[in-house]
Specification:
Chain A contains eight helices and ten strands. Chain A is α/β, with parallel strands linked by helices. Chain A has one domain: P-loop containing nucleotide triphosphate hydrolases (Rossmann fold), CATH 3.40.50.300. In chain A, helix 5 crosses helix 6 and helix 6 packs parallel to helix 7. Chain B is mostly helical. In chain B, helix 11 runs antiparallel to helix 13. The two termini of chain B are 43 Å apart. The chains are: A alpha/beta, B mainly alpha. The complex binds adenosine-5'-triphosphate and magnesium ion.
């Protein structure tokens, strides 16, 4: 059964809507068309996986959605606000409170402790430091690192660092969590822990998650899979429709 | 899609200065090692700069002080020369040029030469112009001088320039030399040249009149002193005689107040004593006594310096009292010390014409170079400390830091580093420069420490350190703040 956006969208609230998003990179005379017109809606409470071969434009799309970069043409709406209309300070506001980022390479501030890293977005949001610390500790406990609050990134494993990064991304209770290959640098077991964490965050806390990945294990926990190829949305599948395909893929993979 | 909730997007909060400051301080203490490298650059640059400036300040102040002291030590000689010297036309011009800003001295000169004060003042002004241009042509680079005035030097230059065609050529050549600046407007030189004949004539008249007064004075004084040399006579004369001597001198028109007279008399007494002691020390029987009793035959200088020694005291016996010997030895030592200092110090330019400047060309050049080195060093350190943190900056922007916050953060950081590095550098620089000058010149430096100037220099260098650090980080900080987060993230 092919994916039908109209039926799927009934009663669902849109968090992100991309309309004809294109992104071209020009270097000298050469133009790379990283995105060739993406149309996509993400609904509240959803867990969407974005799959696609390397270089297909996943990261580029994420940057558009997260307000880190602006599209060459087309629009991105975040909670019905056109991001192109926002000035630098409004974008900063949006990045601070509406979106949480989890990067492939963690991007923790290496000189700060885990707790300081987690409270950083709250500092930017102007939160009182005592409240920030309290919430920071809660978040660290949520990702299972309550004991490690005073450790620097160097003193933690990759999986632990990524969990700190996830705690940080949740600091200001964003509408949307953007994870760009969060498990790419981790071994399978640690990757699974992260999957599990994201899954519980989605199911229990209702966080909307978009996750780019090459990891087929991820597909089991998500609601929808968006296949991107060559800067276009190739196809969108519901996770439950995928069981059969997944099984075969899994075999292929293992 | 009907139930869309319209969320508001507001401006991101601006963090207070205090919060930003605390954030920076934390950052600095976290990356203490990295910051201390940047800090070290600031310290070294500021210290270098401070050493140069404060050293030249100290040298200058010591130089002025020591020359003053030397002047006071030589007061007797200069006064006697002032009274009895017969100046050549050239020397008189130099002397009068030096008097230009001293109305009392000009008045004295007018009195001695028997001319009106107005005329003396006018003459002094003209002498000043002459000296200015003599100095100007003398210090001109040889190549330029040849173009402007051929091979002429001294007063012959003016003679040469008085010719009409020569003057026209001079004006044309001068206009071509952009870097050459006349000390006065061109018209002043022209006027001087036009009046030169008259000027030389009146200078001559005044000179002769003054010589006559001096000769008359000498004749009058001979009645009192006989054939004796003035210095030797004053060194042994009674107070009453000296007072009479002064009366005769002042009657001729010279200014010589009783205080100055007393100082001169005192110095001349010691000098006369020194002459007698020297003569006695060099006598054959004295030499023999030194050889026998002390097993040495030192030179006169060493003997004079040893006058206070106990063994020497036994030798000298009753010939001279202890006070007399001490006075001679002390003065001898002081003059010797001053002379040594003067030899080591840079010359204070005292031509009576060119005012001695704050620094000479070479020092100015060094200071400018060191300033540039400072600037390049600090800019580089700031640039490094910011570019290597592009990724951190990008991450912070992703987390909601505004451009303003990033800029503020780096400027505050630079200011903190400027304050700490500037103060430390200034202190180190001060210590180094004081120690360096002290090694070179000894206690004289401390005696002539230019306190206020050093304080101003200290404050100025710290301020320069802060400003440089902040200025140097504005550009990279702004570049970092304005970058799209993704671009910054990609920079490795
Ligand atoms: N700044 C840039 N300048 C030029 N080309 C770029 C730039 N960023 C991305 N691209 C190009 O855009 C295309 C998409 O890149 P993108 O990083 O989005 O791929 P991806 O799907 O995330 O790949 P991967 O799975 O390896 O992370 C690539 O061909 C890449 O070369
Ligand atoms: Mg990518």
């Amino acid at each position: 059964m092919p994916f039908d956006a109209k039926t799927y969208a009934t009663d669902k609230e849109v968090v992100v809507r991309a309309v004809g998003v294109q992104k071209h990179f020009t270097r000298g005379t050469e133009t790379v068309k990283a995105l060739r017109g993406i149309d996509l809606c993400i609904y509240r409470g959803e867990y969407v996986c974005v799959m696609g071969p390397s270089g297909s434009g996943k990261s580029t799309f994420f940057n558009m959605v997260g307000g880190l970069d602006s599209p060459t043409s087309g629009r991105v709406f975040m909670d019905a606000v056109d991001m192109a209309q926002l000035n630098a300070n409004e974008l900063a506001f949006l990045r601070c409170r509406k979106v949480g980022y989890v990067f492939q390479s963690y991007n923790l501030n290496s000189v700060m402790t885990a707790l300081d890293n987690v409270t950083l977005p709250m500092v930017f949001a102007g939160k009182h430091s005592d409240d920030a610390r309290e919430r920071g500790m809660q978040l660290l406990e949520r990702v299972g690192l309550g004991e490690r609050w005073n450790h620097r990134p160097k003193e933690m494993s990759g999986g632990q660092q990524q969990r700190v990064a996830i705690a940080r991304s949740l600091a200001n209770a964003p509408s949307l969590l953007l994870c760009d290959e969060p498990t790419a640098n981790l071994d399978i077991k640690t990757g699974k822990e992260i999957h599990h964490l994201l899954d519980t965050l989605n199911k229990e806390d209702g966080v909307t998650i978009i996750c780019a990945t090459h990891d087929y294990n991820m597909l089991a926990v998500c609601d929808r899979i968006v296949w991107i190829a060559d800067g276009n949305v190739d196809r969108i599948e519901l996770s439950e429709d995928l069981e059969i395909t997944k099984a075969s893929l899994g075999e292929e993979h293992e | 899609m009907s139930n869309q909730k319209n969320i508001d997007v507001r401006d991101q909060v601006t963090l207070s200065f205090e919060k930003s400051f605390r954030f920076c301080r934390k950052g600095i203490s976290y990356r203490l090692f990295r910051s201390s490298l940047t800090l070290a650059v600031v310290v070294v640059a500021v210290a270098f700069f401070t050493v140069l400036v404060s050293e030249s300040l100290m040298l200058r102040s010591t130089s002025v002080g020591v020359h003053d002291e030397m002047g006071r030590a030589r007061e007797a000689d200069t006064t006697l020369m002032h009274l009895f010297h017969r100046y050549s036309s050239r020397d008189l011009s130099a002397k009068l040029a030096g008097l230009k800003d001293d109305p009392a001295a000009v008045a004295e000169f007018a009195q001695v030469a028997g001319v009106s004060v107005e005329m003396a003042t006018d003459l002094a002004t003209q002498c000043y112009v002459e000296q200015l241009f003599l100095h100007f042509f003398r210090t001109l680079s040889p190549g330029k001088r040849v173009v402007l005035v051929k091979k002429h030097t001294g007063r012959a230059t003016f003679e040469f320039l008085s010719g009409t065609s020569e003057w026209d050529a001079f004006v044309v050549d001068l206009a071509k030399m952009r870097s050459v600046r006349l000390p006065t407007p061109l018209e002043t030189l022209r006027t001087f040249l036009d009046n030169r004949e008259v000027f030389l004539a009146s200078l001559q008249t005044v000179r002769e009149a003054r010589d006559q007064t001096v000769t008359a004075l000498e004749v009058k004084l001979d009645g009192l002193t006989g054939d004796a040399d003035a210095a030797a006579w004053l060194g042994q004369a009674s107070d009453a005689d000296v007072a009479q001597w002064r009366t005769i001198v002042t009657a001729s028109g010279f200014d010589l107040d009783p205080d100055a007279m007393r100082r001169i008399q005192e110095v001349l007494r010691v000098t006369a004593l020194e002459n007698r002691i020297s003569k006695w020390l060099q006598s054959p029987q004295n030499r023999e006594a030194w050889k026998v009793k002390l097993q040495t035959t030192p030179g006169l200088e060493t003997k004079l310096l040893m006058l206070k020694d106990q063994k020497v005291a036994a030798l000298v016996g009753d010939t001279f009292s202890a006070e007399e010997r001490a006075a001679v030895a002390d003065r001898f030592l002081r003059v010797k010390h001053l002379r040594e200092l003067v030899g080591k110090l840079p010359r204070v330019e005292d031509t009576g014409v060119a005012p001695s400047r704050f620094m000479d060309g070479r020092q100015m050049f060094l200071v400018i170079i060191s300033f540039l080195v400072c600037m390049v060093g600090i800019t580089n350190a700031m640039l490094m400390s910011i570019t290597e943190r592009f990724r951190e900056i990008a991450t912070m922007k992703c987390l909601g830091a505004t451009d303003g916050f990033i800029l503020k953060q780096f400027l505050i950081e630079a200011a903190i580093q400027g304050v700490i590095g500037g103060t430390a550098g200034m202190l180190i620089g001060m210590i180094i420069s004081v120690v360096k000058s002290w090694i070179l010149l000894g206690g004289a430096v401390l005696a002539h420490l230019p306190g206020l100037q050093m304080l101003i220099c200290a404050v100025a260098t710290v301020v320069i350190g802060i400003l440089l650090a902040m200025l140097a980080s504005i550009y990279p900080a702004r570049a970092a703040a304005r970058m799209a987060p993704m671009d910054a993230m990609r920079v490795e």
